[in-house]
Amino acid sequence: MPADLRRRLGLKKGDLVAVTETPTGVLITPQEVVATQALAEIGEALKEQGLSLEDMLERGRAVRDQLFDEQYGATSDRDTAER
After folding, report:
1. Same domain as 74, residue 44
2. Which one of 9, 49, 79, 83 counts the least CB within 10 Å of its CB?
3. What is the CA radius of gyration of the chain?
4. Rounded distance, CA 34 to CA 19, Å?
5. Kind and range of the H or E element at 17?
6. Are residues 20 and 35 in the same domain?
7. CA 46 from centre of chain
8. Which CATH number goes with the domain that contains 43?
């Protein structure tokens, strides 16, 4: 991408972008914007299912503890200390 275009878009050399073809041309979106939009969509999907981010984090902790126990034969004290 040419330097003058990067400057106008507020991008630095090496920044990741998403390129989307549209009927009128090409849409270039900074990757952080794409990630933020994806997180918002995930949050909406969770809300529609009656789940919250905290629910998902708690489930992740439980799975992590189970995997830790299976791998090392002991429970994770780190999770208890974090709470």
Report:
1. no
2. 83
3. 20
4. 10
5. strand 17-22
6. yes
7. 14
8. 2.10.260
Q: How far apart are CA 16 and CA 29, in angstroms?
A: 9
In which domain, by residue range, is 67 found? Answer: 52-83
Q: How far apart are CA 73 and CA 28, in angstroms?
A: 49
Find residue 27's DSSP bridge partners: 20
Which two tokens mark 78? 């780190």
Question: Looking at the structure, do residues 46 and 56 belong to the same domain, yes or no?
Answer: no
Based on the fold, state whether residues 44 and 75 are members of the same structural domain.
no
Q: How many domains does the chain have?
A: 2
* Cα(53)–Cα(63) distance, integer angstroms: 15
Helix, strand, or coil here: 21?
strand
Written as six digits, the tokens of 40 are: 């918002």
